[in-house]
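::Encoded backbone::
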Amino acid sequence: MAKVTISLDSDLAIEVMLLAGTRSPQDAVELIVRDYLAKGRRTEARTADASAQDRLAGRRPVAEDG
């Protein structure tokens, strides 16, 4: 998987680390982004109509590291 480098304010990075319970800002941001995406998929699956079920059925879950 390709890696992307981003810059964050140090206060924001520390808050994310505390929220995620990690010691690494990289791991913290990755966990929160994965959780955000999973939550969006769950919401979409609940609120989608029957015709959207075919579209959602083709998605594979993302394997989590760690």
